Amino acid sequence: MSFEVFEKLEAKVQQAIDTITLLQMEIEELKEKNNTLSQEVQDAAGRRETLVRENEQLKEEQGAWQERLRALLGKMEEV
């Protein structure tokens, strides 16, 4: 009878080991995925900063063109 108990215990231990191994593999996969996603977030943040700077530059250029147009329209009104 005790042999059967040991066999059942051994089976449960083996099942626990298998489950732990699978969970460890899943953790590693999730860590890799997390690292990949973190890198993608950093890349996106960098692209965002570039776009923000470009947008500010374009706004400044637009303002300069508007001022030029106003000056030209003012000169045309004088004529």
TrEMBL record:
Non-essential, abundant cell division factor that is required for proper Z-ring formation. It is recruited early to the divisome by direct interaction with FtsZ, stimulating Z-ring assembly and thereby promoting cell division earlier in the cell cycle. Its recruitment to the Z-ring requires functional FtsA or ZipA. Keywords: Cell cycle, Cell division, Coiled coil, Cytoplasm, Septation. Homodimer. The ends of the coiled-coil dimer bind to each other, forming polymers. Interacts with FtsZ. This is Cell division protein ZapB. GO terms for cellular component: cytoplasm. It comes from the Bacteria. It is found in: Cytoplasm. Its main location: cytoplasm. It comes from Affinibrenneria salicis. InterPro entries: Cell_div_ZapB (IPR009252). The gene is zapB. Residues 6-75 form a coiled coil.
